[in-house]
Specification:
Elements lengths: L7 H17 L6 H14 L3 H18 L5 H14 L7
Amino acid sequence: MLVEQGQVTDGLEQIRRGLTAYQMTGAGLAQAYLLTLLAEALRKADRIEESLATLANAHVWVERHAERWWEAEVYRLRGELLLLQPEPPIS
């Protein structure tokens, strides 16, 4: 994966192009899986908020299409991302 090799911009662009091309075929199977791959790449690029938003889309897909086989991974990655967020200040 290009993102893991330090080519963050190119890697994310490649993933997004692939995801868009796949979606344009009208296929829907494994959409949550593909969105989670994008979210993982965004996490590796330290783009936490964007990664969380992408996972929210994956979760919507899981709920809407009952695509449960990847649901646990969506939650696992979301938990990791939430732990990476800074703690809010205590008032």
